[in-house]
Amino acid sequence: MSKQHRLPAAARAPAPDAPPADTAEGTLAGDVLRGLGATPKRLSSKYFYDARGSRLFERIMRLPSYYPTRVEARLLRRHARALLAALTPTGAAVELLELGSGDGRKTLALCREWLKVGASLSYRPMDISAQALERLGQRAARQLPALAVHPLCGDYFRTWPLPQARRQQVALFLGSNLGNFTDAEAHRFLRRVRAHLRAGDSLLLGLDLRKDPHTVLAAYDDPEGVTAAFNLNLLRRLNRELGMDFDLAGFRHYASYCPLQGVARSFLASLRAQTVHSRVLGESFGFERGEVIYTEQSQKYERAGVDAMVSACGFALHAWFEDPELPYALVVCRARG
Ligand code: AVI
Question: pTM of the prediction?
Answer without folding.
Answer: 0.91
